[in-house]
């Protein structure tokens, strides 16, 4: 078994694939619900997995299952190599080095890891952390808790009526007590693609650290960590066509060695006596216990799949689907879309007259359309818009125009039914 020493960034395929053939790579898309073909429009919650990811996990369990890092036998070495190769695959995908990649359970744990370690090391009473009104709860609550613990203050960048960050007076948020700016790269409800490169640059100029929540960005647009310039970047495997229970926290090399351990125990130590312990170097220092080995292997297979299609082709196809959906949804009476940013990913949150979003979601479900109804872990955002919930349709490259037609027909039928 040879560990890949360096994986160069994969070149994009020149041509877009045949999208109907691509769709056949995802067995779950062929499921029927209530005797109808499934139209899966809940990709912002989780995405389906291509056969190559399913096969990679089965192959791992049938051919190389063992615990990693601690064994001298063949299978343990093989599993360790696969796990560490997965780290390299993740690193090259986002333009990082493998020492900067920490495997976590998902974006939520990634933000918690950042809050616990950065907070313990750098935050003092009276300091400030900046988030925005459009953050997922995963990028609010850990900072709220940390601020409470440390006597620090959480400051909030507001959102405009069109669903964009109001950054006119960004400087007012970047004061000499500001320690960190933590923002979502792409909003999970509004679809807004935030101008994070500019915001990160403004923070960096003032010596302020930055975290980007990339859970909704990495599956849908090319992400290059060096171009973004952030200190932390968090995302989940399961939205990127990989298994659940695996995620990533990128931590820049200028910061990673400064951070104290997160969880402690086996796997992250160098030497333990009954009096004290010393710790492994990063990234192992942040991965206590047996990690999600098969998850990391599945994530690498998913990234290889995405690179085989080409992330730019994925982004372009999803923009096509978004344009088509916007045009078609304009024909549905009483439909109001939240989030009309110029730069927007393929997520559409809407209300339908005064029909409750949960009723809309249940009605669509009976038509075979899987959309999500609720607050989508964005309660502060919906308070700002004055609605308790919305229905959300979120598209991936494997969706089709006819699935969007099914959504639109379902909504039109819902309007007739509820009136
Ligand atoms: N941030 C954003 C923007 C998200 O969309 C999500 C998932 N809905 C998360 C964080 C949390 O991801 P996970 O539940 O996979 O930890």
Question: Descriptors for this entry?
Answer:
single chain; alpha/beta; Aspartate Aminotransferase, domain 2; 2 domains; 13 helices; globular; binds 4'-deoxy-4'-aminopyridoxal-5'-phosphate
Describe this protein's structure.
With 419 residues, the chain is an alpha/beta fold. It folds into two domains: 19-40 and 310-418, Aspartate Aminotransferase, domain 1, CATH 3.90.1150.10; 53-307, Aspartate Aminotransferase, domain 2 (3-Layer(aba) Sandwich), CATH 3.40.640.10. The chain is 37% helix and 16% strand. The protein has 13 helices and 17 strands. The protein has helices at 19-23, 51-63, 74-94, 107-122, 141-150, 196-205, 225-228, 253-256, 293-309, 311-329, 357-366, 379-385, 401-418; strands at residues 32-33, 36-37, 39-40, 101-104, 128-132, 153-157, 178-184, 209-213, 232-236, 247-251, 269-272, 277-279, 335-338, 347-352, 369-370, 372-374, 390-394. The strands form five sheets. It has a seven-stranded mixed β-sheet with strand order 4-10-9-8-7-5-6, with helices on both faces. Helix 4 (107-122) packs parallel to helix 5. It starts with 18 loop residues before the first helix and ends with a helix. The mean pLDDT is 96. Bound molecules: 4'-deoxy-4'-aminopyridoxal-5'-phosphate. 4'-deoxy-4'-aminopyridoxal-5'-phosphate (PMP) binds next to helix 4. 4'-deoxy-4'-aminopyridoxal-5'-phosphate binds at residues 106-108, 136, 138-139, 184, 188, 213, 215-216, 236, 238, 377.
What is the structure about, briefly put?
The chain has 419 residues and is an alpha/beta fold. The protein contains 13 helices and 17 strands.
């Amino acid at each position: 078994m040879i560990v890949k020493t360096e994986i160069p960034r994969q070149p994009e395929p020149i041509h877009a694939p045949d999208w109907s053939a691509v769709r056949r790579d995802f067995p779950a898309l062929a499921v029927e619900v209530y005797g109808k073909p499934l139209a899966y429009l809940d990709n912002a919650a989780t995405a389906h997995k291509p056969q190559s990811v399913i096969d990679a996990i089965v192959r791992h369990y049938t051919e190389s299952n063992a615990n990693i890092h601690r064994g001298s036998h063949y299978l343990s070495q093989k599993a360790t190599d696969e796990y560490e190769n997965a780290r390299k695959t993740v690193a090259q995908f986002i333009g990082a080095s493998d020492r900067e990649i920490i495997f976590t359970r998902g974006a939520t744990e990634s933000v918690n890891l950042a809050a616990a370690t950065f907070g313990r090391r750098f935050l003092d009473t009276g300091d400030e952390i900046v988030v925005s009104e459009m953050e997922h709860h995963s990028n609010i609550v850990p900072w709220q808790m940390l601020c409470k613990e440390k006597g620090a203050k959480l400051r909030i960048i507001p959102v405009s009526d069109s669903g964009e960050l109001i950054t006119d007076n960004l400087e007012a948020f970047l004061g000499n007590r500001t320690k960190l700016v933590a923002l979502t790269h792409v909003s999970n409800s509004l679809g807004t693609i935030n101008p994070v490169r500019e915001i990160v640059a403004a923070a960096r100029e003032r010596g302020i650290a930055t975290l980007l929540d990339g859970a909704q960005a990495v599956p849908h647009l090319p992400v290059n960590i060096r171009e973004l310039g952030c200190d932390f970047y968090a995302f989940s495997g399961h939205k990127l066509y990989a298994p659940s229970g695996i995620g990533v926290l990128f931590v820049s090399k200028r910061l990673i060695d400064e951070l104290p351990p997160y969880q402690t125990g086996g796997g992250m130590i160098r030497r333990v006596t009954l009096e004290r312990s010393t710790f492994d170097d990063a990234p192992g220092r942040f991965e206590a216990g047996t990690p999600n080995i098969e998850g990391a292997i599945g994530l690498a297979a998913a990234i290889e799949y995405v690179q085989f299609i080409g992330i730019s082709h994925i982004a372009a196809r999803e923009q096509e689907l978004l344009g088509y959906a916007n045009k078609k949804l304009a024909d549905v009476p009483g439909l109001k879309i939240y989030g009309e940013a110029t730069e927007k990913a393929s997520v559409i949150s809407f209300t339908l007259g005064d029909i409750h979003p949960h009723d809309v979601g249940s009605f669509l479900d009976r038509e075979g359309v899987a959309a999500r109804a609720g607050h989508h872990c964005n309660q502060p955002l919906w308070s700002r818009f004055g609605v308790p919930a919305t229905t959300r349709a979120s598209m991936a490259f494997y969706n089709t125009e006819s699935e969007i037609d099914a959504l639109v027909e379902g909504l039109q039928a819902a309007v007739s039914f509820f009136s």
